[in-house]
Amino acid sequence: MNRKYRKTVIAANWKMNKTPSDTKAFMTEFKAMMPKGRWCDVAICVPAVCIPAAVRAMRETRVGIGAENCNANASGAYTGEIATNMLVDAGCKYVIIGHSERRAMGETDAEVNAKVQAALAAELIPILCVGESLEQREIGITEEWITMQIKAALNGVAEEKIRKIIIAYEPIWAIGTGKTATPEQAEEVCEHIRTVIRKLYGAKIARATSILYGGSMNEKNAFELLAQPDIDGGLIGGASLVPEKFVKIIEAANQPTV
Ligand code: PEP
């Protein structure tokens, strides 16, 4: 982390877990134990049907609610899809884009790019996910793969818009597997992501971009991961479903930084 130049962000990704009633119960418990200091931004990205309950519960707190996906089109014949202006109107501040679980369902780089552009146009903060598979890591193409994913996702995104984006490095082999990347492995790729942003948008923007790590981050390993200079927060799946665990990760963000 480096709080001098960029925001620390702890973001939850609930995936397809919890009902609206569960959401209300979680938020009540979470609010009661939420750390008081303003150490980091907190985002909770929830299933679409839980957004109203989450927004209602977190009104007048520093927690922003997010969606887990969006459609890039403004409106029309896209049964079952949700447009960015609908998310904004529902009270969302963030949207996860390009999660590997959605890419595995067929989401392409071009679609990820269109969603990033639509989210930025609607003034939502995109949490753009990138990450390599175990096979890609083993054959030594992690950096090339991540570079390609970022360039594709940000294609045509103007300099004045890029400032709002959050990038999450999520190695696929670490998501939901309990196999966390070591702090050194995670730092190496997050530093590489910052280099890619520097080459695309310059040093000032690269320095100000929040880059998160995601992949089995939990209350036990968060402190060490967040101590790395280029890891500005976490995108947390499993451990974000339990208020005590999520709060401990937020507390880990309260550590001295470089
Ligand atoms: C995720 O879904 O983005 C994620 C990182 O999940 P988990 O923390 O469960 O590995």
From TrEMBL:
Localisation per UniProt entry: Cytoplasm
InterPro entries according to UniProt: Aldolase_TIM, TIM_sf, TrioseP_Isoase_bac/euk, Triosephosphate_isomerase, Triosephosphate_isomerase_AS
Keyword Isomerase belongs to the record: yes
GO molecular function ontology, one term from the record: triose-phosphate isomerase activity
Gene Ontology CC terms, in alphabetical order: cytosol
Sorted UniProt keywords: Cytoplasm, Gluconeogenesis, Glycolysis, Isomerase
Active site residues per record: H99 (electrophile), E170 (proton acceptor)
BP-aspect Gene Ontology terms: gluconeogenesis; glyceraldehyde-3-phosphate biosynthetic process; glycerol catabolic process; glycolytic process
Coiled-coil residues: none
Binding sites annotated in the UniProt record for substrate: N13, W14, K15, G176, S216, G237, G238
EC number: 5.3.1.1
Reaction it catalyzes: D-glyceraldehyde 3-phosphate = dihydroxyacetone phosphate
Pathway where this protein functions: Carbohydrate biosynthesis; gluconeogenesis; Carbohydrate degradation; glycolysis; D-glyceraldehyde 3-phosphate from glycerone phosphate: step 1/1
Quaternary structure (record): Homodimer.
Family: Belongs to the triosephosphate isomerase family.
NCBIfam families in alphabetical order: tim
Functional note: Involved in the gluconeogenesis. Catalyzes stereospecifically the conversion of dihydroxyacetone phosphate (DHAP) to D-glyceraldehyde-3-phosphate (G3P).
Protein name from the UniProt record: Triosephosphate isomerase
Gene that this sequence comes from: tpiA
